[in-house]
Amino acid sequence: MGIIVDENTRVIVQGITGRQGRFHTELMLKYGTKIVAGVTPGKGGQSVHGVPVYDTITEAMEKSPADTSIVFVPAPFALDAVSEAILAGVKNVVVITEHVPVHDAIKMIALAKLKGARIIGPNTPGIITPGKCKVGIMPGSVFTPGNIGIVSRSGTLTYEIALNLTNAGLGQSTCIGIGGDPVVGLSFLDILELFREDEQTKAVVIIGEIGGDAEERAAEYIERTNYPKPVVAFIAGRSAPPGKRMGHAGAII
Q1: Which parts form a coiled-coil structure per UniProt (predicted)?
Q2: Which H or E element spans position 119?
Q3: Which of 18, 117, 196, 202 has its CB surrounded by the most CB atoms within 10 Å?
Q4: Catalytic residue among 49, 99, 103, 248
Q5: Assigned fold of 10-120
């Protein structure tokens, strides 16, 4: 089964005509993801890799309904893009964009909660249910179907650990990056709850980083709820050196 995305997921790409949007649309299509539309204001009527492009996500949802969108727009416009997607009825919004202002992230997450939608990110590599659907920028070749769920704050560490699991004969149910920014949508706790209910997932890998208390909250949740599945956690780094800027914004709070 996996969580959030599967072979029936229908995806809209916001910012599809940009360099990154165009590039990753092709890779997602090759993986088998059902991309039904793209959105770039002023570019309606075009197509990218056979995907029709619309001026607004409202129009895209009317012509090609979808349950998920992936956002490749520049940071100053991310709030508008995410808000438009949620108000148009999209239930899962994957925000690849990095450097989203904190106040913008707070606003989009509040709107998502109000409308019953999910936000993955910002600053996320996305989500993949191996062999079924990839909504993100991760290299699909390192993942293989199986029963290990992965939730991570780091993109590249996710790829490395997924590859090691694959090489060890341990496939994955779903792998999701929650994002490395100070304020993100779905948290470790949210994903752990989804994995708890997923019949395919038999064990969970948490990949954390120094900074913040997300990992401590996850540990407390696992203990408090007597989590029914084995959990293995890896936290990269021991401490943040004084005066040293860390790679992810989440590591400084």
Answers
A1: none
A2: strand 118-120
A3: 117
A4: 248
A5: Rossmann fold (3.40.50)
pLDDT by residue (tens digit) across 47-57?
999 999 999 99
pLDDT at 45 exceeding the cut of 90: yes
Place of tokens 């948490």: 206
Q: Which tokens in the block code for residue 143?
A: 């993942």
**Same fold: 10-120 with 126-252:** yes
Please give, one letter per residue, the 3-state secondary structure of 204-249: EEEEEECCCCHHHHHHHHHHHCCCCCCEEEEEECCCCCCCCCCCCH
| Whether 248 is catalytic | yes
Residues 6+ apart with CB under 8 A from 242: none
pLDDT recorded at residue 253: 44
| Average pLDDT of the chain to the nearest whole number | 94
Task: Give the contacts of 156 (CB within 8 A, at least 6 positions apart).
Answer: none
- pTM exceeding 0.90: yes
In the numeric block, which tokens belong to residue 83?
């808000």
Backbone angles phi, psi at 4, to 5 degrees: 70, -55
